[in-house]
Amino acid sequence: MNVLLHICCGPCSIAPIQQLREQGHQLQGYFFNPNIHPYKEFKRRLDTLQEYVAAIELPLMVDQRYLLEEFLQRAMQTGCDRCEQCYEMRFLQTAIAAKEQGCEAFSTTLLVSPYQKHELIRQVGERVAEQTGLHFLYEDFRPGWKAAVEISRQREMYRQAYCGCIFSEKERYCKAK
After folding, report:
1. At residue 83, what are phi and psi to the nearest 5 degrees?
2. Fewer CB atoms inside 10 A, N or C side of the chain?
3. pTM, whole model, 2 decimals?
4. What is the Cα 38 distance to its own chain's centre?
5. What's CA 119's distance to the chain center, in Å?
6. d(C-alpha 12, C-alpha 7), whole Å
7. Span 2-173: which CATH code?
8. What phi, psi does 176 have (nearest 5°)?
9. Using CA atoms, how far apart are residues 78 and 76, in angstroms rounded to an integer?
10. What is the DSSP letter of 35?
11. Burial of 76: CB neighbours in 10 Å, binned 0-12, 13-18, 19+
């Protein structure tokens, strides 16, 4: 299939790109991440990704919009369901871009992380696919995560310690006792 892959960052893209290419999919990357805060973090993740995809010759579409306020409004309205809103916001934009590019399917590198809400990602991806008439290509990329971490270290890629949102960053530093 012709697949548009939503990419959150360079290190998380390694295993999914490798696996989808091995399966014979035509692949393009797509960067749209309004959840990432602060802007310096957004830029650093994008720069790292652009360097990596250039090295592996993967076409990349970049949505440069920094829609932090829109993300925060949605997140604050939903409370503990903020991850679902974040996934939906990113996947809907990915699906729209996929349709514009003539892709049959979309997927996400978020499926590589052992820290993400895997089943929720699947549910939101399938819901967005149904709304847009595309296929959500579900793959559990987690088995490739450890090898990808090692590759990212060998390549000296910037690796972040939180998902990107301000809420995740707070949880990283203010753990409940």
Report:
1. -65, -40
2. C
3. 0.90
4. 17
5. 15
6. 7
7. 3.40.50.620
8. -65, 140
9. 5
10. T
11. exposed
